[in-house]
Specification:
With 322 residues, this protein is of the alpha/beta class. The protein contains six helices and 19 strands. The mean pLDDT is 93.
């Protein structure tokens, strides 16, 4: 069992965590990044990335995260292959324990554990991910321009994704297992009035079906009222049943909202505990993009640096006054 000490401890290694690491390292904070169960975050399971600034051509998600990690290491970040099982935020140092027993101590803590899209868990869904099945319209909608698209869900996420996808297609169908939507009234009104969107009520997706080329061609549906089965032809299906933030470690230790996201001071990554910051999808239930995650990672590092500078100044002033 080893204890690793740093001025900035970062849990999570997606765009938010690695951006925080890059800025923290450049400020001389010698950050440690504990990578977690999915090193690189959600982008490592994304193939084509076309909306990250700085790349004229499509880049691959795993390649982009490898480059971010290499950049973070180049400027002085230490990467740790470990999974955190518990944290102590009582201070003055914040500590995290890995599943192998190693202890990580930080004068500041940046939480960048991300969120995972919720999936239906039905046949064909996983196999066709990236081959017609997606959980992010703003990430992948462009690839279905002019095609027939289905959106699965009935809450705000589903309605927002369906409305967004009308920018790319005039044939969008929302499939919902109930006979009414859970989304906010204003969103429902926009959806139901949109000429490019139709709704299939009381339908449950039981299977995603591939064609001969290995891409999605149809959905097998079951009527939740009658049990009747049907096929729905589509070239793209967006599963929009919400996201699950990775906040289990912090329940009872930080304020967490009804959706499971860490609560921060509006417009900042600051949590209620001074010196503890949250960035990326673990605190952002609105945008959930790689570029916005990276931006909040930068903010967390800058705020962590300011926090330490102010604390060190106060300590010196206290000593001088004695």
């Amino acid at each position: 069992m080893t204890t690793h000490t740093t001025r900035m401890l970062i849990i999570g290694s997606g765009p938010a965590g690695l951006s925080a690491a890059i800025y923290g390292a450049r400020a001389g904070m010698e950050p440690i990044v504990v990578q977690g169960l999915q090193p690189g975050g959600q982008l490592t399971i994304t193939t084509d990335v076309e909306n990250y600034p700085g790349f004229r051509d499509v880049v691959q998600g795993p390649w982009l995260m490898q480059e971010m990690q290499a950049q973070a290491e180049h400027v002085g970040t230490r990467m740790m292959w470990d999974t955190i099982t518990s944290v102590d935020l009582s201070g003055p140092k914040f500590t995290a324990t890995g599943d192998g027993g190693d202890i990580y101590e930080g004068d500041t803590l940046v939480i960048a554990t991300g969120a995972q899209a919720k999936w239906l868990g039905v046949e064909g869904e996983e196999a066709l991910s990236g081959k017609g099945v997606s959980a992010c319209a703003t990430c992948d909608g462009f690839f279905f321009k002019g095609k027939k698209i289905a959106v699965i869900g009935g809450g705000n996420t589903a309605v927002e994704e369906a409305l967004y996808l009308t920018n790319h297609s005039d044939d969008v169908t929302l499939i919902h297992r109930r006979d009414s939507l859970r989304a906010e009234k204003i969103l429902q009104d926009r959806l139901l009035a949109h000429p490019s969107i139709s709704v299939l009520w009381n339908k449950r997706v039981e299977q995603f079906v591939a064609g001969e080329d290995g891409t999605l061609t149809s959905l097998k549906l079951a009527d939740t009222q009658t049990g009747e089965h049907s096929d729905f032809s589509t070239e793209g299906a967006f599963v929009a049943i919400g996201h699950a933030p990775s906040t289990e470690l912090f329940k009872g230790k930080l304020e967490i909202d009804g959706g499971g996201y860490i609560v921060v001071e509006p417009g900042t990554p600051k949590t209620a505990i001074p010196g503890v910051f949250a960035c990326g999808d673990v605190m952002d239930h609105i945008y959930r993009q790689a570029v916005t995650a990276a931006g909040t990672g930068c903010m967390a590092a800058l705020d962590a640096e300011r926090y330490l500078a102010e604390r060190e100044f106060a300590d010196k002033a206290s000593v001088a006054a004695q």
